[in-house]
Amino acid sequence: MIIHKNSEGYPDPTAGEALGRIARDNRRAAKERELLETKKNFDYLCTQMELAADKFGFDFPGEIWLRDRKTGRIYKNKHKGG
């Protein structure tokens, strides 16, 4: 636990707690933005795969599953294929 100190060098736990919460909220928001961006990329990729398959006369009969290499999270997308 890091003790926050004021400008005179005295411990200031109230400010330390507030700054800790702000930092935690910022980290949480950054993770949420990253997850949203990943989901957008996944949806875009699935759409492009469907378009390419359709162009060559193929369909996706079920779901597309992809694993994020960075997080290991599995993304699934149901398709309107054949």
Query: How are strands sequenced across the largest beta sheet?
Result: 1-2
Q: Overall pLDDT, averaged?
A: 88
Strand fraction equals 5-15%
Broad structural category: alpha+beta
Q: State the major sheet.
A: 2 strands, antiparallel
Q: What's the number of extended β-strand segments? A: 2
Instruction: Flag low-confidence runs.
Output: none
User: How helix-rich are the residues, as a percent range?
Assistant: 40-55%
User: Rg, please?
Assistant: 23 Å
Q: Indicate the multimeric state.
A: single chain
Give the ordered list of helices and strands: HEE
Instruction: Name the overall outline.
Output: rod-shaped
Short overview:
The protein has one helix at residues 13-55, and strands at residues 63-67, 74-78. The chain is of the alpha+beta class.
